[in-house]
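request received
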Amino acid sequence: NAGVTQTPKFQVLKTGQSMTLQCAQDMNHEYMSWYRQDPGMGLRLIHYSVGAGITDQGEVPNGYNVSRSTTEDFPLRLLSAAPSQTSVYFCATAISSTDTQYFGPGTRLTVL
Amino acid sequence: KQEVTQIPAALSVPEGENLVLNCSFTDSAIYNLQWFRQDPGKGLTSLLLIQSSQREQTSGRLNASLDKSSGRSTLYIAASQPGDSATYLCALEHSGAGSYQLTFGKGTKLSVIP
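response:
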């Protein structure tokens, strides 16, 4: 039982490049979400999903896309990376949105 | 808009001391409140979850309370240990933009000195 896994752990991009941050869970949780953590800003919700095929925007969705084709996976796509997207990204899962949240180890992204 | 504040931003205590971390929020219409621990370079680990109908939760040396009327929660750590050194975050589950959202405080960085 791996829990919540995120890949890659570290990534450096150039402005304008695209990439996908992966998040996978083996707990059969319906609720999955993406956060970014920036110094002095705390964690902010980017996108979330309440089940396969259902996604919605959080507080800071601009510049990011998500999809949820399976219960297990919830990838986050950066279409055209910008320096403002330099951050640590966390994926979280839960049985439902009001239950205990389980976080992945994070992906540290630097955009030059 | 829900705002969550944690004071102090940093706290240093000697080993063995009991301590209280504070979390305040502006909107009492919440579904639950969670306390998390984050070690440097790591993800968040959930410590305690208090439903809006509850007043407190306990786990080992940790006790969390919730007072919605005053917009406050506290995390009490008994007999602190160096291994308790970490950043502690509180987060509120509340309705926003048509669904539930989790809003975090910026955390209190705790250092327990041996």
